[in-house]
Amino acid sequence: MTLNRFVVLSGCSGGGKSTLLTELQRRGHAGVEEPGRRIVREALAGGGAALPWIDAAAFARRAVAVALADRTTAQGLTGWVFFDRGLVDAAAALEHATGEAVLEPLGRAHRYHRRVFLAPPWPEIYVNDPERPHGFEAAKAEYERLLSAYRRLGYTVSILPKTDVVARAGFVLERLEV
């Protein structure tokens, strides 16, 4: 069996995932930006309605499609490939928004590295912005859903420490040593 090089950074909105991805990229690793952020920027620029606060189901369906496309594109990359969120996050959002049982089939058919890293709720660094207008309570609820989803799918969940980004990147890379 070959080692799955696709590593997910997931967890609480505003928990420092994108900052961590940037640090891992600075260290020479490949990274894939969060599908949701790209979808929101695209919708805001073009007046689209696939926004999580307008049509959560349309947003989640779009996120599933983008996450699948990201996986295909990432096949051409070498070494560790870090995903700021991914297909499991999108499938969990779709299941939450619609009740459709999509998490298990999508999550089992398209696996990532067995260890996933979750950013815990961290109110001291949480901020709203035009792409993240929801409050901290909604972010905490999302975190709990994702923690449950990754565990349901059999991933080993490592909770990121609430520390500076350099130490967080070291934490991730140390746990990926095989």
Automatic annotation (TrEMBL):
Residues 7-168 form the NadR/Ttd14 AAA domain. InterPro entries: NadR/Ttd14_AAA_dom (IPR038727), P-loop_NTPase (IPR027417). Pfam families: AAA_28 (PF13521). This is ATPase. It comes from Caulobacter rhizosphaerae. The lineage of its organism: Bacteria, Pseudomonadati, Pseudomonadota, Alphaproteobacteria, Caulobacterales.
